[in-house]
């Protein structure tokens, strides 16, 4: 058997991992510090002097973190006492044990990129929870909310589209077309995450629905048909009372979350699924990722939006939640640095939960990196192989490409893309629907 490939790492000078660690992450940390500064008077009003002291403490911890990163210092153990602190510190030990030389320590620019990038977000969380009473403050909340608010026009268009679809009148082919349309909306919704733009606003302003045809050439792997075959077969063959569960491993809040809600709503309304389970993050993560608070906030906003179709959607979604047809889950595993092939061992309860799904949709780039272990795979390696034994249920990655990792391409395509568009892997311009499961 050939050796598995090496991990992506900032050690590779000039790589996207390197540029992210050198430029983008310090920029994100600076923005976090600035956010805390800007909330100073709010903290004072709420907590008095204690709030001011806490703000100072958080800023000093974050400045120290930025300095450690920029000077490639060793990765140090976490000192907080949170649900996953011990697991993280064990993982740090494991990373250290991988370095044969006992004097060498894992560091920002030498260790696997997935590990250090996750560690940075976990250290931001540490800085905040060590600074009570600010321990509940989400440093990314403002930008997530802004992304949603700036996408209002597109949100209206999508809600209106969904409300005006008369699903019961559609024949099988029409239903498939609509399903494909909403899958593509959910794909391109992943284009505008905030960590890629260094936390700067990147909301959705164009009318996606009318751009889908133009965007089709940018879909490099298109397994939508497999998703349709799977769900439409279940729809035809299932008994009246049986459950068809689709899980979404969510990515970003704001506009992307709306596109996921629209797709999830369609799945229920069309009876392609009977239950949707959403998996979000327990702590603020990679700037724009969805937490329970974001999930609820976005739903509330839509419900109280001053647009008739938005309000109707929001009302429906709330009812789905109340009826247990939409269920939100979180788990510490999603904010650990492990590839998903480790889930069975590290978080068997989560693995068992995912096994209940008929289909799992993994949204976004970070999920893809974790599915494929963030390794330098050949572009033609089969997706099934890169998953390295992670097969809880049929699954599909819906992702725009924002990192130098992609598998399952036909021979020659990567070379062709590199020649015509050298940054094809990292700009979010290209997308995939990549399925693994029985076909
Ligand atoms: O929100 P997404 O689609 O997971 O993208 C987040 C992305 O941010 C980056 O880490 C860059 O910091 C990408 O490479 C990463 O995977
Ligand atoms: Mn994200």
UniProtKB/TrEMBL annotation:
The keyword Transport does not apply. It catalyses: beta-D-fructose 1-phosphate + H2O = D-fructose + phosphate; beta-D-fructose 6-phosphate = dihydroxyacetone + D-glyceraldehyde 3-phosphate; L-glutamyl-[protein] + S-adenosyl-L-methionine = [protein]-L-glutamate 5-O-methyl ester + S-adenosyl-L-homocysteine. Residues 20-416 form the Damage-control phosphatase ARMT1-like metal-binding domain. One of its GO terms (cellular component) is nucleus. Keywords: Hydrolase, Manganese, Metal-binding, Methyltransferase, Nickel, S-adenosyl-L-methionine, Transferase. Its EC number is 2.1.1.-, 3.1.3.-. InterPro entries: ARMT-1-like_metal-bd_sf, ARMT1, ARMT1-like_metal-bd. It comes from the Eukaryota. It holds the Pfam family ARMT1-like_dom. Transmembrane segments: none annotated. One of its GO terms (biological process) is DNA damage response. One of its GO terms (molecular function) is fructose 6-phosphate aldolase activity. Its cofactor is Mn(2+); Ni(2+). Belongs to the damage-control phosphatase family. Sugar phosphate phosphatase III subfamily. PANTHER family: DAMAGE-CONTROL PHOSPHATASE ARMT1. Metal-dependent phosphatase that shows phosphatase activity against several substrates, including fructose-1-phosphate and fructose-6-phosphate. Its preference for fructose-1-phosphate, a strong glycating agent that causes DNA damage rather than a canonical yeast metabolite, suggests a damage-control function in hexose phosphate metabolism. Has also been shown to have O-methyltransferase activity that methylates glutamate residues of target proteins to form gamma-glutamyl methyl ester residues. Possibly methylates PCNA, suggesting it is involved in the DNA damage response. Subfamily III proteins have a conserved RTxK motif about 40-50 residues from the C-terminus; the threonine may be replaced by serine or cysteine. This is Sugar phosphate phosphatase. The gene is Armt1.
């Amino acid at each position: 058997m050939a050796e598995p490939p090496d991990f992506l790492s900032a050690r590779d000078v000039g790589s996207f991992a390197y540029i992210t660690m050198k430029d983008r992450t310090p920029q994100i940390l600076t923005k976090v510090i600035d956010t805390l500064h800007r909330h100073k008077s709010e903290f004072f009003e709420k907590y008095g002097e204690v709030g001011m002291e806490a703000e100072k403490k958080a800023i000093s911890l974050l400045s120290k973190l930025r300095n450690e990163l920029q000077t490639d210092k060793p990765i140090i153990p976490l000192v907080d006492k949170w649900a996953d602190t011990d697991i993280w510190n064990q993982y740090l030990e494991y990373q250290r044990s991988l370095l044969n030389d006992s004097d060498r320590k894992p560091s920002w620019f030498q260790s696997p990129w997935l590990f250090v990038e996750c560690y940075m977000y976990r250290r931001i969380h540490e800085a905040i929870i060590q600074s009570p009473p600010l321990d509940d403050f989400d440093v990314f909340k403002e930008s997530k909310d802004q992304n949603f608010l700036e996408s209002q026009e597109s949100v209206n268009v999508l809600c209106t589209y969904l409300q005006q679809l008369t699903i019961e009148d559609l024949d099988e082919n029409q239903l498939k077309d609509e399903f494909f349309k909403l899958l593509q909306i959910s794909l391109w919704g992943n284009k505008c995450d905030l960590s890629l733009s260094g936390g700067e606003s990147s909301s959705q302003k164009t009318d996606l629905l009318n751009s889908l045809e133009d965007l089709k050439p940018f879909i490099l792997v298109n397994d939508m048909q497999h998703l349709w075959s799977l769900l439409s077969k279940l729809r035809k063959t299932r008994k009246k009372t049986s459950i068809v569960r689709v899980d979404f491993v969510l990515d970003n809040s704001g506009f992307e979350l709306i596109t996921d809600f629209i797709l999830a709503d369609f799945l229920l309304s069309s009876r392609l699924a009977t239950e949707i389970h959403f998996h979000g993050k327990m702590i603020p993560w990679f700037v724009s990722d969805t937490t329970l608070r974001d999930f609820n906030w976005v739903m509330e906003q839509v419900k109280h939006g001053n647009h008739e179709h938005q309000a109707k959607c929001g009302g429906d979604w709330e009812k789905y939640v109340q009826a247990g047809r939409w269920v939100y889950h979180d788990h510490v595993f999603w904010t650990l640095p492990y590839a998903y092939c480790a889930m069975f061992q590290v978080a068997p309860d989560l693995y068992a939960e995912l096994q209940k799904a008929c289909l799992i949709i993994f949204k976004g780039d970070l999920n893809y990196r974790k599915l494929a272990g963030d390794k330098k795979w050949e572009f033609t390696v089969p997706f099934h192989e890169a998953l390295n034994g992670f097969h809880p249920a049929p699954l599909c990655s819906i992702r725009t490409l924002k990192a130098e990792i992609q598998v399952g391409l036909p021979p020659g395509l990567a070379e062709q893309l590199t020649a015509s568009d050298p940054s094809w892997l990292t700009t979010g311009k290209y997308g995939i629907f990549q399925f693994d499961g029985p076909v």
